[in-house]
Amino acid sequence: MAAAIVATLVQRIGKDEKAARPHDWLAATILTVRNDIIQRWMESTRDAHAKGAKRVYYLSLEFLIGRLLRDALANLGQTGEIAEALKTLGVDLAEIEEIEPDAALGNGGLGRLAACFMESLASLDLPAYGYGIRYVNGMFRQRIDDGYQVELPENWLQHGNPWEFERRESAYFVGFGGEVVGTETGHVHWKAGEAVEAVAVDTPMVGWRGKRVNTLRLWTARAIDPLRLDRFNDGDFEGALAGQLRAETLTRVLYPNDSTAAGQELRLRQEYFFSSASIQDIVRRHVQYTGDIRLLPDKAAIQLNDTHPAVAVAELMRLLIDFHDLGFDEAWDVTRRTFGYTNHTLLPEALESWPLPLFERLLPRHMQLVYAINAKLLREARALGSDDNAIKAISLIDEGGERRVRMANLAFAGSHSVNGVAALHTELMKQTVFADLHRLYPDRINNKTNGITPRRWLFEANPGLTGLIRDAIGPDFCNDVDRLSGLETLADDSAFQSKFQAVKRSNKVVLAQWLKAQMGLRIDPDALFDVQIKRIHEYKRQLLNIIETVALYDQIRSHPERDWTPRVKLFGGKAASSYHNAKMIIKLANDVARRINADPAIGGLLKVAFVPNYNVSVAERMIPAADLSEQISTAGLEASGTGNMKFALNGALTIGTLDGANVEIRDHVGAENIVIFGLTADQVAEKRAQGYDPREYIERSPELSQALSAIASGVFSPDDPDRYKGLIGGLYDGDWFMLCADFDAYATAQREVDRRWNDRKAWNQSTIRNVARVGWFSSDRTIREYAKDIWGVL
To answer: Which of 218, 393, 638, 774 is the most buried (most CB within 10 A)?
Structure first.
């Protein structure tokens, strides 16, 4: 193996051993390992073709895959061999793994779920393609300047990507604008006003034990005429390249700021670009191997990961009608039997809709098809007795105010299956956002609770705990994570508890050293590590955590005689570039950290840090070291969560509301092994209906009142005393996410956490039982359910 790596270094990188730098060794190692992966990849493809297997196609605007070398080595079982080979060459595998860039293809749970699903599909030996966009910069790199978030380009492709393969033969014409014209034969032809070429770039996705290697196909954009030579020769050098620049803009960043009309248009262009290319590719492959487009539902299962690819419904209809000569009704039947739709949110602003003039200008043929689909849908609804209010809710066109195309309704109407991602979320879908569609199609909504891959989030992220479990119960859990239940009998074993606690402390020491190197922050690994890492959004209530931190700080200073539990509060996450309040929450977290960390009066009892540029690799450091997992969203608003599963699998206790998958985690780990507080989803809805007044809660909670006053008056922002008046004023005036209503319960729950922490035997029992009981939350289980109930591939 060492000889193979050196040969690759010389022949592919052009360096000898003496001249090679760490990035050269990284590239040589990846390319060497890749040779084995390619063989398995080709065998997997040939096997699917030979069997005529039905394929799963997973369309997602995000794939947060993280670093791939460690993942590939672990799944192939080659970590030890490669480490030894590199060691003979004077190279440390762990060190070169650390310099591999994180693929900037996602932001949060949606993209990480897609990555876990791709890994599980391969591990379960199911033929599948993932489809998305090959972002050049993707989600921004976050820097914190004076406490403020600064967005910078994430140049993960700066030095190329040794994992990917461009497929020039898989290139498709994607049009925009123009007009729809009739032909002499009575057919309809969309004459696009502009077009780009979508070119496929493939990355192999390796399953456990290398059993199968599937394909993540990402699209890059190229102008039809990259260089207008006539303009160049006329001296218009910039104009000569304008087409290529416009094409490249499609794949430049994930989630462009859509607070402007130009940003909105770019985002719709991105969604159609990748959806169109993907559907064209799926149809081309199907026709190539079967010759009969009517058999598409029998050979292809297309899953829409949220509303971002919902325009694929209209795109498939366009191809079936305009290019394959199916009638409308037959095309609609094929389309609905092919698609499934996963909903990830109940937030109205996240259920995408597009201004009708924008949609019609960019996609005139699709607008015609949306109207035709809507007519069929509404006639069916009226025939089944829907009243005017139900018709308005069901319609694909929102007529209230500015007319908009509702992408969630399009995805629902065009799919045979619509699933939520946690039991509570699925029930709320039926009662709220899709209530009328559910009444129309009562068998369509089903639940598929999210899961995580244990390979990435236990075996790779926490090798110390993995080794301890293997020594205690044997290696079978590596192939069947449900066998973690074997730890149940050891939860009360004092010797095992000591070993378990030692592994956790070791992970905390590693994190503490990393934080010191990265941020200059010194923290005590024997303190309770309290972690909230996720996308910054008001409904996730990082603000509730910060306010309680301020209240705790005040209590520690006011009552030094009490036996306080040393605690380290760690935050991480990115705020959307146009989301003012979320960005102010980041600034507040940093202002509070600066004040608390510099105060000698609290004697190190409380430390606070906002860890910048949260991504998969940072999560892999923080989750194994966490003692407490903060899952404190307003009940009824978090669809599922997967961070909660990762923390529990790594032996952290959860503090949370009965929201999303927290409900099912409580049911699996036991109410005594989780800390639940706050209003339920029903109580939140009831309070809103009755007229919620946050001032009542503020006035009767001295701790809350004092904390809010301190923040609003400038105690933590002496350079700008008015900085947080608007943020805090919003709690007095509305508090839509009910921080004030839940504050006292949250503070009480945090003191319950202190009590449990100080009984280390009981704490260890609870955390061990969390690990033993969360095997059900594996993405393997989730994918089996999709495969059996929705896709028909098991």
So the answer is: 638
- Of 269, 535, 666, 773, which one is the catalytic site residue? 535
Distance CA 80, CA 74 (A): 9
Specify the 3-state DSSP secondary structure of 297. Answer: helix
The pLDDT of residue 623 is 98
Tokens representing 153 are 């380009």
Task: Answer whether 504's CB lies under 8 Å from 760's CB.
Answer: no
646 belongs to the catalytic site? yes
Helix (H) or strand (E) holding 242: helix 242-249
772-793: per-residue pLDDT in tens? 999 999 999 999 999 999 999 9
Annotated active-site residue in 8, 251, 307, 642: 642
Q: How confident is the model at residue 543 (pLDDT cuts 50, 70, 90)?
A: very high
Question: What is the C-alpha separation between 653 and 36, in angstroms, rounded?
Answer: 40
Q: Which two tokens stand for residue 703?
A: 């701790």
Q: Does the pLDDT of residue 186 top 80, yes or no? A: no
H or E segment and range at residue 58:
strand 55-59
Host H or E run for residue 70: helix 69-76
Q: Work out the average pLDDT over 55-59.
A: 98
Token couple for 575:
């705020």
What global pTM score does this model have?
Answer: 0.96
Whether 336 is a known active-site residue: answer no
User: What's the CA gap between 299 and 191, in Å, rounded?
Assistant: 31
788 is catalytic: no
> Do the Cβ atoms of 27 and 272 come closer than 8 Å?
no
3-state secondary structure of 66: coil
3-state SS of 172-218 is EEEEECCEEEECCCCCEEEECCEEEEEEEEEEEEECHHHCCEEEEEE
Mean pLDDT to the nearest integer, 111-122: 97
pLDDT for res 182 = 85
What separation, in Å, do the N-terminal and C-terminal C-alpha atoms of the chain show?
38
Task: Considering the candidates 286, 365, 540, 607, report the single residue annotated as catalytic.
Answer: 540
Residue 372, CA atoms < 13 Å, CB-side half-sphere: 16
Given a cut of 80, is residue 184 above it in pLDDT? no
